[in-house]
Backbone:
């Protein structure tokens, strides 16, 4: 019962938390956005957009935001921040929490800045210190502890700095290539019909490269994003429950086997098959229901922990309440799962003959086999239905169930194969205790398979999570060579390029790359204007292509992260003909174009006709400047452009020194320190891994409970054996060694099997999902296998204490008068 | 004649709930080396408890047991196990074979526990003697009751015990098979010169020993040599 309880607890906790999150997002969607709706674009409102804004009664608040370097002269520090220039009473919902509280109201009128509280703490900044953004220096009049829509994670990459809207222009940071967002916030009373509003405004705004976001759609989108994570956690919890169910099936199997004679006696005395079956079915159902209720109660308690663990990822304050659905699902699931998984062993009561009283009958009848097959089919159907309910996608559900069946089958297969190999090539030369412990794996009513399954699945889960983290980190890790850039200077204007490069060189460093960037949008695809394509509801291509502002470069050679998939790279072209360009495979796919197709780009008002000459496969995971569209040289050189310069700094100190010099001389240049970024990525992955490990822990805990149960199930058999050995003269040490070795075999075999399977799974993940090479670290082998083995050994021996302490006469007394 | 087993004022009781149940009370007797000896009595008379105490499988509440000249009350559990391993053989009503071991492996367990290198050879010889040489690789579940008890017999003699305790050795066998097993037991015993102590409620079997100790209600009812019974 305990094994089912934990699985249910994990599932109910996640379910309940998910429901709460959805409800919270719905309730706090206005606080998330800070207004009822907004219009956003990355250029100032066009006349058409301005007309719409005016028709809506004018914006209630305006914002211009962009990432930029901020300098804190007093501390001599610099940091990439998100500059938010605000005009008006934003946020209209929720609060901008500042210290002092009055700063949130006064910063606009006083011309001061609000700086992220963590950043203030990091650089030991005080109220009254100054911050320099571009060409403007402002006093810091308060720190921001929380604002609408920001999470701990996003704030750690580029912490927000709020300044008055009017000062944005003066910063001098609004220039070619700047990644700027213009937002117009609206508050309406009564609220409009958002669906109708979107239907009316979206086409016009799309044509102007602007978007309408309503608080409802933002809340929904965020909810969906967290929903995906929740679905994954749900599956991990479901695996824990399944593992518990395997434990139930095994315990019931042994329980029923012990009761078969009693059942046969009952049948001799006239009990019908239905009666005997129901006696045990009701017992199991009752236990499942109680397990489910207990699990639900524990789960409801557990969900209080989730906000603490996940707060960094959540943009809202989570208020937990008791959702009805998980309250019903928990007990129901306990009941159904325990009955389903107990059905096969329970069948034993149905088919047992009254003759069993007189003579023990072995073997499985044809009828039992058919019935077992039927039950297995029902279980699979239930798993499919339940996974579908969790995932809301039949293909994913089928994939999940197939995955479960494959993992369980492989683990079972390996276990069975291993046992056969041991039997066939039994190490007869080993000492008695070692041989006896190996033989114990086959004892009657042995739990070897169940134990190997639970240990194996648990190890599989933990090591796969570990390896996945390995793959992700390896993919983002930097090579230590001097030619690998680790400091990226963005938004370098063409006229600044030489002097920025000179500054880098004078610090004794090398300019690794100098990449020109030209921004452009698609105007037409194969002669059809993007506006026309937007209206076409039958088109299946991905629409982001139509609205996206492409950052394009030009060069005449491929780089490390690119491989040519098709076409000709950098062909010669004649002046006046279409310009041959190269697309990344994802853009070609989403734009539904192939080689030879024609694309017209709008480069800040100038239309340029291009032809797709080649398609490249780009490894976006590489820490490199990758591009989806590449022009040949001698075309864009005179177009308005900016540059990205990269360099390699040997250590943090020289990075900080260079950043300080650069920000002082070129305040408009943004600098990204890749090493710092990687550290953040690692931190984020660590946090995510923590959450996942927390769920995987349930599988492990369930495995441990199954382990406890299995050891207990075979306890009498163990007592009998050890008493017999004791009677024949075995010392306590010998018996202890036999038990210990048995658990060591189980631990090594189970965890080893799980680890090997996880290696295989991770290899597949690396090849097919992450598309990268996978070189596993040794930690799982060095830590997990011995760790899990020791755990199994400790649990096994703790449970075997009474076996060792049983006086030899006990068995004799049980057996005779 | 030297005494291999000396029992003095032995008493044993168990607590069942709040009740104290006296199983054995004031039991004293001694057994000569090489003798055959039977403990008889109805169910619940304390036969098996007495056998357990004599073989050092449990400790008495009062009184002493001396086995092969060693006061077993003074030994700890491991020392008693060692004594059993070197000097004692057992036969049980329910055979008590290890189900995971073959017939041969079951026979060699006491020798294996001693670390004896020749265990296999000795085991095969003993199986030959009990007529099961061709079944040496069979598991207990593949053997009949009579065959299992013959394997148990071979095991009991494998460590060349000085004394052999048999608890209802024919209790689970039909008359014909039981008879064969008993003949084998006495033959092997005679050949090895082992002291034999049989616990039984079968007077016919008991009458084949040299001396019978009769128990009732945990007390000795009579202790007689066979010709005076």
Residues:
């Amino acid at each position: 019962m305990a094994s089912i309880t934990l699985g249910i607890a994990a599932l109910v906790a996640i379910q309940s938390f998910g429901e709460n999150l959805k409800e919270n997002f719905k309730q706090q969607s206005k606080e998330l956005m800070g207004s009822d709706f907004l219009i956003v674009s990355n250029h100032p409102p066009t006349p058409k957009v301005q007309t719409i804004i005016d028709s809506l009664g004018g914006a209630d608040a305006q914002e211009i935001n962009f990432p930029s370097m901020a300098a804190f002269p007093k501390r001599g520090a610099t940091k990439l921040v998100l500059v938010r220039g605000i005009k008006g009473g934003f946020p209209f919902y929720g609060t901008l929490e500042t210290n002092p509280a009055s700063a949130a109201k006064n910063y606009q009128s006083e011309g001061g800045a609000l700086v992220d509280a963590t950043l203030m703490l990091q650089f030991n900044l005080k109220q009254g210190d100054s911050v320099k953004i571009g060409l403007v220096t402002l006093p810091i009049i308060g720190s921001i502890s929380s604002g609408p829509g920001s999470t701990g994670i996003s704030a750690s990459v580029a912490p927000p700095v709020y300044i008055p809207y009017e000062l944005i222009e003066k910063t001098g940071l609004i220039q070619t290539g700047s990644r700027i967002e213009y937002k117009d916030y609206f508050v309406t009373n009564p609220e409009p019909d958002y669906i109708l509003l979107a239907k009316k405004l979206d086409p016009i705004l799309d044509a102007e490269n602007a978007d309408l976001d309503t608080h409802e759609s933002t809340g929904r989108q965020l909810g969906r994003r967290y929903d995906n994570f929740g679905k994954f956690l749900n599956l991990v919890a479901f695996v824990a429950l399944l593992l518990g169910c395997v434990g139930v099936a095994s315990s019931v199997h042994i329980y029923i086997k012990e009761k078969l004679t009693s059942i046969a006696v009952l049948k001799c005395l006239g009990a019908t098959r239905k009666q005997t079956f129901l006696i045990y079915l009701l017992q199991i159902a009752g236990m499942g229901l109680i397990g489910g209720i207990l699990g639900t109660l524990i789960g409801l308690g557990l969900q209080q922990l989730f906000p603490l663990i996940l707060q960094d990822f959540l943009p809202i304050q989570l208020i937990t309440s008791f959702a009805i659905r998980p309250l019903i699902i928990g007990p129901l699931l306990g009941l159904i799962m325990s009955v389903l998984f107990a059905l096969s062993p329970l069948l034993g009561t149905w088919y047992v003959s009254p003759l069993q009283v007189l003579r023990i009958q072995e073997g499985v009848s044809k009828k039992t086999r058919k019935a077992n097959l039927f039950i297995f089919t029902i279980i699979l159907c239930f798993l499919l239905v339940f996974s579908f309910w969790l995932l809301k996608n039949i293909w994913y559900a089928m994939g999940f169930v197939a995955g479960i069946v494959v993992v369980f089958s492989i683990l079972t297969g390996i276990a069975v194969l291993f046992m056969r190999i041991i039997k066939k090539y039994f190490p007869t030369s080993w000492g008695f205790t070692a041989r006896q412990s190996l033989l114990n794996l086959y004892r009657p009513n042995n739990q070897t398979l169940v134990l190997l399954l639970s240990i194996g699945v648990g190890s599989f889960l933990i090591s796969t999570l570990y390896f996945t983290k390995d793959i992700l980190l390896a993919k983002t890790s930097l090579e230590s060579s001097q030619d690998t850039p680790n400091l990226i200077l963005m938004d370098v204007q063409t006229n600044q390029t030489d002097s920025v490069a000179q500054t880098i060189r004078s610090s004794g460093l090398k300019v690794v790359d100098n990449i020109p960037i030209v921004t452009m949008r698609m105007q037409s695809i194969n002669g059809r204007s993007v506006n026309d394509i937007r209206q076409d509801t039958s088109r299946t291509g991905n629409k982001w292509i139509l609205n996206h502002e492409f950052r394009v470069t030009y060069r005449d050679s491929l780089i490390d992260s690119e491989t040519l998939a098709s076409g000709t790279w950098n062909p010669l072209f004649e002046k006046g003909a279409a310009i041959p360009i190269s697309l990344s495979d994802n853009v070609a796919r989403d734009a539904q174009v192939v080689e030879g197709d024609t694309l017209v780009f709008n480069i800040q008002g100038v239309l340029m006709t291009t032809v797709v000459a080649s398609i490249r496969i780009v490894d976006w995971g590489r820490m490199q400047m990758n591009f989806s569209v590449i022009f040949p040289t001698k075309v864009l050189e005179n177009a308005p452009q900016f540059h990205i310069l990269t360099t390699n700094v040997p250590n943090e100190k020289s990075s900080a020194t260079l950043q300080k010099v650069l920000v002082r001389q070129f305040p408009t240049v943004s600098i990204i320190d890749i090493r710092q970024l990687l550290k953040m990525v690692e931190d984020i992955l660590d946090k995510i891994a923590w959450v996942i490990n927390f769920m995987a822990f349930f599988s492990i805990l369930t495995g441990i409970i199954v382990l406890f149960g299995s050891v207990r199930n075979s306890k009498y058999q163990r007592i009998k054996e050890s008493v017999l050995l004791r009677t024949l003269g075995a010392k306590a040490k010998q018996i202890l060694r036999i038990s210990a070795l048995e658990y060591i075999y189980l631990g090594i075999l189970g965890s080893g099997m799980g680890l090997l399977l996880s290696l295989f799974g991770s290899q597949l993940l690396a090849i097919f999902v992450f598309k990268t090479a996978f070189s596993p670290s040794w930690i799982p082998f060095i830590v997990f296998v011995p760790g899990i083995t020791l755990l199994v050994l400790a649990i096994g021996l703790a449970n075997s204490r009474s076996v060792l302490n049983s006086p030899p006469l006990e068995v004799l007394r049980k057996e005779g008068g | 004649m030297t005494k291999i087993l000396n029992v003095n004022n032995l008493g044993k009781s168990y607590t069942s709930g709040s009740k104290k149940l006296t199983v054995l009370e004031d039991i004293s007797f001694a057994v000569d080396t090489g003798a055959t000896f039977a403990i008889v009595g109805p169910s619940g008379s304390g036969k098996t408890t007495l056998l357990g105490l004599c073989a050092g499988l449990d400790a008495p509440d009062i009184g002493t047991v001396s086995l092969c000249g060693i006061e077993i009350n003074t030994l700890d559990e491991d020392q008693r196990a060692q004594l059993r391993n070197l000097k004692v053989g057992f036969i049980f009503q329910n055979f008590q074979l290890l189900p995971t071991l073959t017939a041969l492996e079951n026979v060699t367990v006491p020798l294996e526990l001693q670390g004896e290198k020749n265990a296999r050879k000795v085991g095969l010889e003993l199986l030959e003697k009990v007529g099961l040489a061709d079944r040496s690789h069979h598991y207990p579940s593949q053997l009949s009751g009579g065959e299992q008890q013959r394997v148990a017999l071979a095991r009991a003699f494998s460590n060349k015990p000085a004394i052999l305790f048999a608890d209802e050795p024919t209790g689970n066998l039909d008359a014909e098979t039981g008879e064969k097993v008993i003949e084998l037991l006495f033959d092997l015993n005679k050949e090895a010169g082992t002291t034999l102590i049989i616990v039984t409620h079968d007077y016919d079997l008991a009458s084949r020993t040299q001396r019978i100790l009769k128990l009732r209600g945990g007390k000795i009812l009579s202790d007689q040599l066979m010709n005076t019974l």
About this structure: The first strand of chain B starts at residue 3 and ends at 16. The two ends of chain B are 22 Å apart (CA to CA). The first helix of chain B runs from residue 47 to 54. Helices of chain B lie at 47-54, 77-87, 103-114, 119-129, 145-158, 175-192, 203-206.
